From TrEMBL, chains A, B:
The lineage of its organism: Bacteria, Bacillati, Actinomycetota, Actinomycetes, Micrococcales. This is Metalloregulator ArsR/SmtB family transcription factor. Residues 1-92 form the HTH arsR-type domain. NCBIfam families: HTH_metalloreg (NF033788). Transmembrane segments: none annotated.
Length: 105, 105
DNA sequence: GATCAGTGCAACCCCAGAGTTGCATGTTGT
DNA sequence: ACAACATGCAACTCTGGGGTTGCACTGATC
């Protein structure tokens, strides 16, 4: 997972409301209307957030009769974590090398 | 690292300019003015971003004479990755349990 | 001590996006 | 067919934040 793919995911994860939506979905799949009953925001606001989350692959729509339930894709979270860890490790190595050179001066 | 601590870090990481700043700092510590020479934004804009990054512990100021160089804290990245992975794993387990029950119906 | 580079602060512009209301469009059940 | 519920779409408000310009301040350097 490249760094460009990562940024929108972080942008999506950088919102409290979306975290509460993800947390609510963590208790089981739910529709936008169902979530609107539990959270202090409108159904339409939730629908927008779900669209954002779906866009970055953190959530997946599942049609159940006339309603659209959403399901958390946990794998995307762990994959994002892997990508972040990789970037961090690279920077750590590079910076360690730089400082080693700097000490040698 | 709790989920509330995590959200501001993601918000900080959810901006392209901040990533380019972090990438530039990955080549070695630098001041806001120095970064302004490499990036297509003003020094003041960079200063704001550095303040945000410092706020969430991704970067650390180091006074060198009359200038203030900033240094990437790679550990914060890996720690954030750990936290994210933990949350993902918890959701995976919980959702797996829920679906197991659902299949039993 | 005069100059110059680096930083800090404040006011301002502008737009993305979080949230709302309102209405139209399905889709299910009776 | 009709009522009820769920979703989708559009327009609107408004705040936050990314970016800018301008100026004041501080610390080196000659």
């Amino acid at each position: 997972m490249t760094s460009e793919t990562l940024v929108p995911v972080f942008a999506a994860l950088g919102d409290e409301t979306r975290w509460s939506i993800l947390a609510a979905l963590g208790e089981g799949d739910a529709s936008a209307s169902a979530l609107a009953g539990r959270l202090p925001v409108t159904r339409q606001a939730i629908a927008k957030h779900l669209a954002v989350l779906q866009e970055v692959g953190l959530v997946e729509p599942v049609r159940v009769g006339r309603e659209v339930r959403f399901r958390v894709i946990g794998a995307q979270l762990t994959e994002t974590a892997r990508g972040l860890e990789t970037v961090g490790a690279q920077w750590d190595r590079r910076l360690a090398a730089i400082r080693e050179i700097a000490e040698g001066l």
